Amino acid sequence: MKVCMVGTGYIGLVSGACFAEIGHEVVCVDNDTQKINMLNKGEIPIFEPGLGEMVKKNVRAGRLSFTTDIRKGIEQSLFIFIAVGTPPKASGEADLSGIEHVATEIGTAMVEYRIIVEKSTVPVLTGRRLRTMIEKSCTRDIEFDVASNPEFLREGAAVNEFLCPDRIVLGVESKKAEQRLLELYKPINAPKIVTDIASAELIKLTSNAFLSTKISFINAVSVLCEKTGADIVKVAEGMGMDKRIGRAFLNAGVGYGGSCFPKDLKAFISMSSELGYDFRLLKEVERINEDQMLRVVKKAEESLQYLRGRTIGILGLAFKPNTDDMRDAPSITVIKALQKAGAVVKAYDPAAIERAKKMMKGIDYCRDLYETADGVDAIILVTEWDEFKQMDLERVRRTMRKPVFIDGRNVFEPKKMKDLGFIYCGIGR
Ligand code: UGA
């Protein structure tokens, strides 16, 4: 089947490549000429395991192509997926101008029946707005369907999650769109839930809001663990064994970041308020998350008495492992707070240093974790890369000026760290 994917960000590029991988003919469109030139040369602008090989393979097979010409994509494809960015405005509300622009292009270029599918995360009822926008710009009377097919993929595991998802959600307004979309996804063996567009939009929004809530919940409980001597890892394990709760997303840490949870939660709160509901529960989820990022800085300060003039080594800058994505990364908040308190910051990340350099100045960026540990008064581990889990702890401790180790992701066992001579602080243990 023929697919046009508008937007070659994380979602668009992964989805486009994966649709080609399962046998469809895909054209990916972006108005960023530089990006399209790169992709046409086989260069991948993002760090995502497995994606580069998949793109190359499908381009060679003639199933995947890249263009800046949106009209070409609209003319030749039955499905037009919209995967453009929906960044937050100052108010937190999602900025839908990218989607509006694509809708106008579709309306003017469409000559026969098309299924226009929302792939980006959008506020509820955007599908309805999308239909109105397309109708407005369409001069002829052409039948089309709008649908919602939210994406649940996670950065770092995106390819696998697209091909083996927990579920595929299809929000449709006609039987015809339902049948075609089911045919498109036939090669993927996963439960498919077909519903109306607003429900599909809400499934995506509430899933992210609920996952963020789980994280803030466990982070709040970690404070109680510290006050009582309980161990958050055991508490999460015990809670998670209840099938109704589940163990996933109950890892206490420095808080959630990334391009999705922080932005989506803000947009969800703003959307709820526009609909007349003050979602205070989610406001609290946000507040707990902000506090959580600063707790590791407080821990460093408590262990060292003061931060002014101290040198702190940050291990991990990306918002999570296996990505170079720095968007809303907790490391940014942690580093800013350290700098504000007068500390000198050294930092290392296996993938995100180049991106971090563009966002944060005044940091001594290091080549590896050992260089980062050398001469520091404390280490704060912010991202749980595998490379850090395997570090030579003896070597690290020997080179540190003071052996303070703040483990923001509970990577290490407290007893083992203390036995090795560290002044060790985890989260909630
Ligand atoms: C998230 C969702 O997990 C995806 O299902 C969704 O498709 C995506 O947003 C999106 O809306 O596009 P992602 O942002 O890639 O995916 O990353 P996650 O793996 O969910 O992690 C988000 C943040 O939560 C990270 O900073 C991570 O460190 C943190 N986290 C996660 C915790 O602090 N504790 C946990 O137990 C789990």
Summary, kept brief:
By secondary structure, the protein is of the alpha/beta class.
Descriptive keywords:
single chain; alpha/beta; Rossmann fold; elongated; binds uridine-5'-diphosphate-glucuronic acid
Overall number of domains = 2
Strand content: 5-15%
Helix amount: 40-55%
The CATH class of the largest domain turns out to be: Alpha Beta
Measure the end-to-end span: 53 Å
Quick one: overall form?
elongated
CATH topological fold name of the largest domain: Rossmann fold
CATH superfamily of the largest domain: NAD(P)-binding Rossmann-like Domain
> Major β-sheet, in short?
6 strands, parallel
What is the number of E strands? 14
**Which consecutive residue ranges, at least 5 long each, have pLDDT under 50?**
none
Q: Give the rounded overall mean pLDDT.
A: 96
Provide a count of the helices.
18
Strand order of the largest sheet: 3-2-1-4-5-6
- The structure class reads alpha/beta
Radius of gyration: 23 Å
What binds here, in terms of ligands, is: uridine-5'-diphosphate-glucuronic acid
What's the CATH architecture name of the largest domain? 3-Layer(aba) Sandwich
